[in-house]
Amino acid sequence: METATDSPRAKAPRRTKLDVFGILARFAPLIFLIVLMIGFAIFEPRFLTPLNLFNILRQVSIYGLLAVGMTFVILTAGIDLSIGSLVAFAGLVAAAVSKGGISNRFTVGAGQEAASMGWYFAALAAIAVGVLGGFLQGFAITKLKVPPFVVTLGGMSAWRGAALLFAAGGPISGFEPNFVWIGQGRIFDQIPVPVVIFLAFAVLAHVALRYTRYGRQIYAVGGNPEAARLSGLNVPAVTTSVYVIMGFFAGLGAFVLDARLNSAEAVAGTGYELTVIASVVIGGTSLFGGVGTIFGTVIGTILIGVLLNGLVLMNVSAYIQQIIIGIIIVLAVAFDTFAKSRQRVG
Amino acid sequence: MEPLLRMTSIRKHFPGVQALDDAGLEVQPGEIHALLGENGAGKSTLIKILAGAQQPDSGTIELGGEHVVMASPHDAQRRGIATIYQEFTLAPNMTIAENVFIGREPGPSVFVDWRKMASDTRAITKRLGLEMQPLAVVRGLSVAEQQMVEIARALSMKSRLIVMDEPTSALSLAEVDKLFRIARELKAQGLSIIFVTHRLEEVMQICDRYTVLRDGRLMGSGSIADITIDGIIRLMVGRELKELFSHRDREVGNDVVLRVEGLNRLGNARDQSATVLADVSFVVRQGEILGVAGLVGAGRTEMARSVFGADKFDSGRIVIDGQAIRIRSPKDAIRHGIGLVPEDRKQQALFLALAVRINLSMASHRQILRWGVFIDETAERAMVEEYRQKLNIRMATPEQLIASLSGGNQQKVTLARWLALRPKVLIVDEPTRGIDVGAKVEVHNLLFEMAQSGIAVIAISSELPEVLAISDRIITMREGRVTGQVKRADATEELLMSMMTLDNKGRN
User: How many CB pairs under 8 A join A and B?
Assistant: First the structure.
């Protein structure tokens, strides 16, 4: 029921009024973020200090990394519910690697000496686990033709099980200082390292989606898979690839999380999928695929961070925070649907 | 006589466009009324207002002499106006009876009287002169049968006026005849019908009166007996179209570009053993337009999709420039220089949420790559500009969403997508479906130009005048087989029709 076959002509001569609604809809997340920040700043002077703002960014940086990956998935009209569990598993593997292997993983002080496998091996291990996990899920989705929701729901359970098995009950903690610096350090004594990692990868992802052939293919597959196939695109490969990318970011996020907490445990990452999907959707990416930007996701991530931070400063209970997040997700999607129906008419 | 429906001075503004500007429509009781106009003329908006799906900015609607406001689709239905859109609104997993009575199931309180529902459904279909199983599931029905279910639903609601949007666009000729027979029957029973259509021959055949809209305005209305097709076209486009559907004789090369040999395919979605393609063989030469005629379901689209790699086939050979090639996916076909403009633009060709520029270049990223990874947007814009000029694509900017273009311009973008690849063979499946008369002529001329430039064109069309106008040679298909071939100079509509309906034996 598109308008196209019989709609008013596009080259209508009477384009007199500025499409205020269209512009508002496009920048809605940013506008909402600014309004929210002004609101909190008025009620709570501590909110607008540089220290607090950097704290917010640091808090959201891991969510942000995951949300960047999730944007790729949701752009293809997919979903990944497994990321919280995959973060836990990848984080434990990385932690064990940094401690010098699975048998040393609970040894206090292991991995601190020069002979240990350094933080870079930990990073590689986390990313390898994430990428492999993502690939397996992508494979199940494209080859076994199981819907993403079901595959990643299965993954949510399976990776958590793997994490619990691997951890054998206890957390793995006490990493070498260089590793911990990734999570806790600040560049120029100001900017937290996780924030730099998050924004750097966000820029990379933005460039990939906006300026490369691969980015075009993702939007095409998400917008109309059949038309994409008939345009010569390899739809299964593109679909698999977004889960691999999601896995990459889950691994990277797990590594940064380990570093920030100086510890890895099997229950890490619980509930992350909700916050991350919320960030992406609030940022304007359509759950139906084909529409969305990394810029929106970054704004959406920060928006959630600001909201939670502001509520904490205003002493709102954590339970109520969860309720508010839930309502905002629904409203964001409702807004998206409404904006789309307006567009369709015009 | 008091008209059944009178819509006067209807205006409707959408962001950026005045869709309706003093539009009107008057329908008498017991008549079949044609609502005509090019794409973008405002027909859809007008019937959506009539159906209560949209509200006019101003204007009046009178029903049986009484002022009414169609507050919602439900409100319009309650007042006896049923609208059957191109995309049906049936629930595919439910039975015919359930669909006919959906939301109005007979029975005491929350319970459904299944027996009454089935017998009422049977009574209604009998009134349509049809034999339908009330308990058959809708998913298994043909498009024509589903349309009948929609009509049955309209009747069950005791409608006085049935609006049908492009009812014949997906029907075979036999099915169209059947639909018309039913329409006449309903008319005899005192109902009025509004046909929204592009097919003027059908209008002359079935309708009593017409209303023509152009650019949202009422251009004229009157009795079909007092006007000719040319007269209607003049009202629709505001100019004469002498060369409409005229044929041009062209030189055709001798080199065979594509040779298809013994293509076989068994099994469709519903039936594993159904013959989809049986021993389909043909050739297309350089610079030639090969027309493919056939009734709906004759296997023309299936043939095209198999050659293009969109569907698998069981056996057969595809030879390009004398070389047998393997085609397992559209990607393979594209690599060998075959393009396909599919029949359903929106479902199979367009990315509605993306800009014209991005839609146009989708199949030819290779040509505009920088460092093997990045899209060179400068080169891309140049490509879009080149085809905007060549194909006369009318758009405000290449950055506007393709959904906001008219059907004809969308089709030109789809054609440009393939032209940018410089294909050897281009298959166009119903290239002018759902686009207006002026754009049809433009698309025909584009096909001529493509052939002129050496492309071997395969043109599938359900409109015989179109097949006759554009083809150099025509093959006909029936039940998955090629039933004959004829040079354009020897072909007539009657001959093609007999070849399309012939029993398996072709004439050469």
Answer: 159
Tell me which residue in A7, A224, A226 faces B40 most closely, judged by beta carbons.
Answer: A7
Closest to B425 measured CA to CA, from B459, B455, B450: B455
d(CA B38, CA B233): 9
| Shortest distance, CA A167 to any CA of chain B (angstroms) | 41
Q: Distance (Å) from the C-alpha of residue A343 to the closest C-alpha of chain B?
A: 9
Domains and CATH numbers, chain B: 5-237 (3.40.50.300), 256-501 (3.40.50.300)
Among the residue ranges B11-20, B178-187, B251-260, the one predicted with the least confidence is B11-20
DSSP states of B143-173: HHHHHHHHHHHHHHTT-SEEEEESTTTT--H
Residues 174 to 193 of B: which have CB under 8 A from any A CB?
Answer: none
CB contact under 8 A, A234 and B350: no
Taking the C-alpha atoms of residue B116 and residue B139, their distance in angstroms, rounded to an integer, is: 23
Q: Minimal Cα distance from A220: which residue of B?
A: B351
B422 touches chain A (CB under 8 A): no
CA distance B233 to B222: 14
Q: At CA A79, angle to CA A77 and CA A83, rounded to 5?
A: 155
Q: Judge whether B128 and B160 are in contact, CB under 8 Å.
A: no
How far apart are alpha carbons B357 and B161 in whole angstroms?
A: 43
pLDDT digits (tens, 9 = 90+) for B143-190: 778 888 888 888 888 889 999 988 887 777 778 888 898 889 889 988
Residues 428-457 of B with CB under 8 A from A: 434-435
Collect all residues of chain A within an 8 Å Cβ-Cβ radius of residue B236: none
CA distance B391 to A99: 65
Name chain A contacts of B342, Cβ cutoff 8 Å.
230
Each residue's pLDDT tens digit, A60-111: 999 999 999 999 999 999 999 999 999 999 999 998 888 776 666 666 655 5
Within 13 Å of residue B54, how many CA atoms lie on the same side as its CB?
25
